[in-house]
Every structure is written in structure tokens, then in C-alpha cells.
Amino acid sequence: MAVPRPFLKNLALGPLAAAAVLVGGCVLAPEETKHEQEALRTAGDSFERPFDLRTLPEVPAEPTWPVLVDRAMRANGEVEAAYHEWAAAVHRVEQAGGYPNTPLSTSFSYGLRGGGSAFDRTSVTVGPDPMENLAFPPKVYQAAKIALDDAKAARHRFAAKAFEVRRGVLGGWIAYALQAERVRIQGENVRLLKLLSETAASRVQAGGPQQDLIRAETAFRIGQNELANLEAMLPQQRAQLNAALARPPDAPLPPPALMPLPRAMTLDDASLLALAAERNPRLEMLVNQVRGRANAIELARLQYVPDFNPFLGVTGSVSQVIGLGISIPTLLPELRGKVREARADLGGMMATYRQTKFDTAAGVVAALVTLRNSERQAALYDQQIIPATDRLLSLAREGYAAGAGTFLDLIDAQRTSLDARIGLAEARAARESTLADLEALLGVDLEALTPPTTRPGTEPFAPDHAAMNHSRSNTAEPQD
Length: 480
Known about the structure:
Layout: H1 5-22, E1 26-27, H2 32-43, H3 65-75, H4 77-97, E2 98-99, E3 104-110, E4 122-128, H5 137-205, H6 210-244, H7 269-279, H8 281-302, E5 307-315, E6 319-327, H9 332-402, H10 407-442
Antiparallel strand pairs: 1-2, 3-4, 4-5, 5-6
Helix pairs in contact: 2-4, 2-5, 3-5, 4-5, 5-6, 5-8, 5-10, 7-9, 8-9, 9-10
């Protein structure tokens, strides 16, 4: 029975159709890739639109630090750049895990002589690009695992940058508030010095000593100069804060009318040290880099496995050919060198992780010591020193008014009171600034954090400062 020619043509072209279907390819990557992509989409809500088209939080007439931090997380260029680096790392997972890993190569030939129809003299061969072998699938999967580890490290790098910017905004706001408090205190001092100068002038007219008037006027002029110097610092600090918020340097940003109240911290020192070991963004970044180096060793070992190049060809209805070329690795010294290189990289990364862990613990301890000392100083100034200086100043004023005290005694008491009030403001500012440093080390918002009963779960990072506590992944530490 004769086979119809159209049927033979379809039979010959079937393998070509199957090869065409494979052109689209697939991705050989771990299931966790989807979770990483979802985390990227969640964090990218603030960054995917062009900057000029975004709706950013407005800074109110009386701003507070949560408002400023929220805007910085959505507008700061350094945070956005870290996000795009993470996005690029996530997209590289698909590149590393794409399969087939080589383009499809097709060749056509036509016999100029010979019998049969033109179709029977036409030959078509389909196979991988001869310049690149079709990789053994586990190799591609292993490369995707390494890319995924790099993507996770980039996510923690993004979180670390966000906390670093958050610390900068908080520290800048506290410094701005402290400078405004210094201006207020010095302004009160200048007004008092002016009053004393006027009082001394009246006394001179009544026969009092000329030296008191000279001292009073000199102290008043010096106080005015100090006040002007303090006020000159405010525009500089405002410009720096506006830069972090992606605003023009001269945009309105009034300092708080009073020093901000101390932020709450419910965890004890032992709990904070434990948090540093499991939630520090830099440590978690290194954990994933260590995993990536370990997976790189396995990928280097897989290079001993041969790659293969399947191909198929048809010559009209005359013949159909299918074959398999195998690429046998013969450069054994090179392969051994790659394995040893990967092991050396792993050893170096584990050493970096180990030292960073010690350094982080030391940084947390230092921050805690500074924090507790600042709290002690603030309590000392508030409960003992300032009440004593207030009494001293009151007695000096009464004595000077009654003629029982000298002008120098009054000025000295006034300066002591001024120094005490500034000391209290500086101690409170140091405590808040150190708390911001501690939060950056731990990777948490300590004010919103409650004492944990279990270890936090894995949740994607969100650029909103209130969601920062969920930015860490539940990642086990490497065993070194």
C-alpha cells in the first residue's frame, strides 16, 4: 500500500514542530523563587512608577519622625537604588535557570542533482547551537539556586539600606530638634542678659559700679553672638534632612517646638542581643552569600558530568535522522581548580560571617552601654542637677536684687543653669540617636516591637517603616 506524500511530509516535519515548541523554554529554579518574586512585587509598590508620577506623603506643618521616615522610605534614592539591585538579582534567577540554555540552531540544504522531487532533495537539521552545549539539567538548576541565594542577599541588602536611611532621618531629626532646643535656651538666656544689662544701666545712673554695666553689656553681646551661631546651624540641618526626604533644600521643615518624648523600648538587653544574632540585615545577607558559595561548590562538581547535544534531521521523505552528541570533560585540572576555588570562596565568606557576627554583637553591646548611660544622665539632670541649678539661680537673683550678691555671681548661676538644661537635652538626644543606631543593627523598629514568644516568621520587606519588623526572613545560620 502506497503512503500518501502529504502524510510523509507531516511525519517528517513533526520533530521540527516539537523542536519549535521547545524554543520558548522553561525555568529550572527552586520553588522559593516564586516567594522571592512575590516579596519583590510587594516592596516595589513604592518604586515601580516613575518618580515624577508618584504620590508621596506630604510633610505637614508640624512634622513628626514617623511621617518623615515614611516619606524617606518611599522617596529616598538610595533605598530605591537598593530595591532595583534586588530586582535585577531576582530577574537573574530566570536567566540562570532558563532551559534550554543554548539557542536552537537550524540548517537547510538542497541537493542540486539527484532523482526525486525537490522536497526529497531538501534536508533540514535541527539541534542546539554548535557553539554552546546543551547543559545537563541539574547544572542549570544549581546555577539558578546560586542566583536565588544572591537575590535573597540583595533583599537583605535592601533592608539594610532602608534601615540605614531610617537611622539617618531619625538621627538628623533628633539633631535638628536638639539644635532648636539650644536656640530656645540661648534665646531665654539672651533675654535675661538684656534685662540684666538694663538693670545695671539703671544702677549706674543711681551711683552703682560702672564695671557691672560693662560686664552686663559684654555678656549680652556674647550671648547674642552665640545665639546667631546656633541659629545659623538650623538651615544646614534642614537642608540635609530635606535631601534625605527627596525635597528641595529650602523646603519648609520646622523643628519640633519641644524636644521629642523618649521612645519606648520594651525588650531587655538579653533579648536585644538575641535579636542581633537572628535579625541583623547584614548577617542575613552573609548567610545567603555563604549558601551561594556552598551551592557554587556543587555546581563546580557537576562540571564533571558530560553535556549533550541532541539533534534531528530530515531529508524529504527519504530519511529521518536523530542523534546525540556527548561533550566529555577532559580538562580535569581546570575542573579541579574550579572546585578548589569555590571551596576557598566559601571559606572566606564563612570567616567574614563569623567575624561580622562578633562585630555585630560588640556593636549592640556598645550601643546598649551608650543608651543606658544616656538614660542615666538624663535622669540625673532631670531629677537632681536642674532643680539644684534652678534654686541656685533664684537665690542669685534675689541676692543681686537686694544688693547682697555680685553681678558675677548672678552670671555664673545663669550659665550653670543654662549648661544644665542643655546637658539634659543632649542626654535625651544621645539616647534617641543611639536607639536609632541600635534599630539599624537589629533590623527592627524597637518602639513597635513587643517581647517575642516565638521567633518571627518569614514576611516580605515593606518600605513602610511600620512594616520593617517583618522584613527579615526565617533563615537558618550556616554551619561553620
